[in-house]
Amino acid sequence: MAATGAASTDVENREWYVASYAPTGVPNSEHIKLRTVSLSLRADSIPDGHVTFQVLYVSIDPYVRTQLSGLDDGLSLPQIPLGQVIRAFGIGKVIQSKDAKFSEGDIVLSRICPVSEFGVMPSNLLQKITPAIGIALPDYLSCLGMPGITAWVGIEKIGNAKAGLNVYISAAAGGVGIIAGQLAKVKGCRVVGSVGSDDKVKLLKEECGYDDAFNYRVETDYDAALTKYFPNGIDVYFDNVGGKMLEAVLNHVNHGARIALCGMISEYNKVWTEREGVRNLLNMVGKEVMMKGFMVGSYYNHFEEFIKEMEVYLKEGKINSKHKIYNGIGSFLESLASLFSSSNVGKVILQVTP
């Protein structure tokens, strides 16, 4: 439902909620469902210090999958309670405000935006954004949002990428990987990425500045592929995949290499006893490798530093933003499942309201 004229009335608000947990496999319509609830947007129904808003965009991220398993495992994120609305990073437009800092029409960002058409939230959980000239709203959920700062942390703060280093990015055409590789190029590194199709290989090399890339579905002997693409070894590895790929990387790391463990999407849909083990961790000892897992929320104290740097790169055309947009609140399940199909290029975003 459109927000026009809605500020003084009730709306039928469609929202996605958790119906049952999915310990394994990709969540489907048995696990997450769409329902319609009545939501009052009248000023007298809004608590003090709260804001009502129409949801414009929702970020679709792999970490949400780990909150739908019903298991205390992996990323250690809290499970979304059964019957509760799914939340994610999102952008909205203010309809009513009971906080003087927000006005009707303001564009706001939330890290826990409901996956719905409308929302009511405490104002201290919202951040006002003023889109810069030449920067589209979806960029605030990609290059200037969680994927952007995740890539930045892995490449700059953990990887310590510097000119001349050999950098490898797995899932390099995904929402985080596609930014991470470009950031490493800005730093003067030699960058190679792995992806799931020949079209993505072409994209990375022709549009994102990668020095090389390979299709892991074609070059299935990862150890041989890394020998081919990294004859001088790997200095920085940004890991989005885990499993067999991580094991192969450890056979090619240089002394003092740094590995940023961002995610392990190859393992998200399995219980831990079914996941691929890494058998060559001893290589880390002999080569004094630093491997660090990280949750980006621990680095939000660097957000202003990140934004200042990234906005410059965007305006100078040094970072090429790529989005896969799914349209309409009804497309959430499809957009979430797409993360595990290698069908997307760049950041997956749900456009709730045109």
Automatic annotation (TrEMBL):
One function term, GO molecular function aspect: 2-alkenal reductase [NAD(P)H] activity
Keyword Lipid biosynthesis: no
Keyword Oxidoreductase attached: yes
Keywords: Oxidoreductase
Superkingdom: Eukaryota
Domain Enoyl reductase (ER): 25-350
PANTHER family found in the cross-reference section: 2-ALKENAL REDUCTASE (NADP(+)-DEPENDENT)-LIKE, PROSTAGLANDIN REDUCTASE
Protein name: 2-alkenal reductase (Nadp(+)-dependent)
Annotated organism of origin: Nicotiana attenuata
Lineage summary: Eukaryota, Viridiplantae, Streptophyta, Embryophyta, Tracheophyta
Gene of this entry: DBR_2
